Amino acid sequence: MSVNKKNIYDLTKKDLKDFIKNKKIKLFRVNQIWNWLYVKGSKSFFDMNNLSNDIITLFDRNFSISLLEVKKSYTSEDGTKKWLFKLKDNREIETVFIPEGKRGTICVSSQVGCSLSCSFCHTGTMKLERNLELEEILGQIITVKFFLEDWKRKTEEKKVTNIVFMGMGEPLLNYNNVINSINILCDTEGLAISKRKITLSTSGIVNKIKDFQRDTDVNLAVSLHAAFDDIRDELVPVNKKWPIARLFKELEVYNSSERKKRITFEYIMLEGVNDSIKDAKQLIKLISPLKSKVNLIPFNPWPDSTYNVSSPEKINNFKKFILENGKIIATIRIPRGDDILAACGQLKSLNQK
Question: Is the domain of 15 the same as that of 79?
Fold first, then answer.
């Protein structure tokens, strides 16, 4: 393969349209090629039998259709699958697929490593190496669909139904590539994943929330994890830049314009750190003005982590207090894939010690 070839998964639909227009090809070819890539899952331009030989040759000369290279894969006892992908520059990322009845969720990474250094998160022990390219974000989903043999299935039988940007990295710090990937995922002439089934999770990059509100209407989750600034400063250090009051001021603006959707607040349950009734009272005070729900996440241990998970009794009492006193929807996330370090907060490239 020529080193000059660009991976076609790195093109937005506009990029593809511009290329075709510049080559004096009729624009209806855009949707034909898009269908081959994102509906049929074609791995070769030579399979695209409704294109002329000249167009096939042109695309094969200029582009590749390249999947991610799998270095290792793991399957949990609960059916969760994790892939360690090796990128072109030998860096690595992890991607997880979580099956649950008729629902199947891919947890997507957006960066190699992370700059936010959240103290409870395994990825946070890595330094940020770089942002993922568009082809690498989409490549996770496309490659996983191949392993699941999802391209061959009818729409109602597909295993992949949901996408969450909750893997390695902070999605809003790789803004353009993440938004472009979301637009491709939602394109009704391609992968056609409903916006209601895509969630982006942020640690609270305040200066990007307004852009996010303008550019897409997929679901927003906020990794809150503490209701007091001193605790959140330790758990989510970006809080020192954008404290809770500043974050919630921005979320109030977001919520007022996106009233149809709840903001999900993710809250990790750490023994003796953030799991008291005092914490629950402050959490209610913070989020009750917003249309929101709380997802309580039992801490998933990882090698050399210094925290312990709150007891099941304490987590249930915390949930009950929020439900009864705040009249706020609260759920407890059931850990999935923790035996293969695939659960929330456990992802990390294996070449990072």
Answer: no
